[in-house]
Amino acid sequence: MSIKHAAIVGAGVAGLTAALSLAAKGISSDIIEQAPQLGEVGAGLQLSPNATRVLDALGVLSELERHWVEPTAISLVSGKDLRPLASVPAGQFARKRWGHPYGVLHRSTLQQGLLRAVLNQPLCRLHLGHRVQGVGGDALASITHRKPDLVIGADGAWSVARDAIVGAPSVSFSGNIAWRFTVSQAAAPGFLSRTGVTAYLGAKAHLVSYPLNEIEGFNLVAIAAGTRSDESWAIDADAARRAMLLEQFSGWHRDIRTILAGAERPTFWPLYQASEGNWHNGRDTILIGDAAHAMMPFSAQGAAMAIEDAFALVVHVARAPLPSALATFTTERKARAARVKARGDFNRFAYHARGPFRLGRDIVLSLRSPETLAADLDWLYGHRIDG
């Protein structure tokens, strides 16, 4: 065992998963979070089998399954005329093909499930309401009263842990905006699938919808490319931003525009992405999740990559001296993140295609069977971290 104790900056999905992964190897940790409490954040998220495999290994999956929806399929549909384009089976098919389930749930359900496991783990200590000014061992020890062998920066796209790493990634606005909102079952139009995940595709924009048990309704995310924003954080969409939403989805099917126009309390999320850069300092500090590789949500892998990172890091740390473990982890995970990002870039091109490219996309999709589409995802959903 190369370390005995770690400090984790950030108590989001990445940080809590890291703490549980460390505890599974007998390594204690302090998790430091600036928020005074971990409340309800965000809206829905998708957990593909590569993520649920890790959560199962950490003993938290069964709790999540009590709350989530296990979609029967992930479908692509034309946003212009609601014509089905392609579908990848999920449900029992996912369990059989990739060994673990595909689920959709509220983000707070995942975070609270991880939090309960952390609070029940004697090797984990959570420190809320502490804004980190520096991530050196001494600075963190002033909060935790214990100097860590390893510092894990799991504090998201706006990471302060990056300041401890020379040449760390930086974040920049991607030119994409997400509008997020929910719709109750009673108010939901009939075209929204009650059993699956659906991506409605259109020129320079797409809309994702799936049911959420926790709110007895639907999570919707509308994403448009080629936009500008003066904001860095998610804010409530005012009249101007609502108008921008409808402008980006002009020419879409009237039923979709109706649901967008009637969205209650939508949030306006400028989407940021991380550049290339160093993830560790060569000694005792490492970045994981969005702090290392914030990427666009076009492959629905943000939470999954954070979960994978946390688990994989601990596997390497438990096997090798720390500097070697950090280097090996970074090499392995950079390659994985780059491939996921490339898939997201491909999806963005395909989802937002216009003119002849759109026609070509539709023809190609019409020729692909659900099974061959699923096979294209084996490398992603079937990924296993031995440890």
Automatic annotation (TrEMBL):
It comes from the Bacteria. GO terms for molecular function: FAD binding; monooxygenase activity. Pfam families: FAD_binding_3. Keywords: FAD, Flavoprotein, Monooxygenase, Oxidoreductase. Residues 6-340 form the FAD-binding domain. Its cofactor is FAD. This is Salicylate hydroxylase.
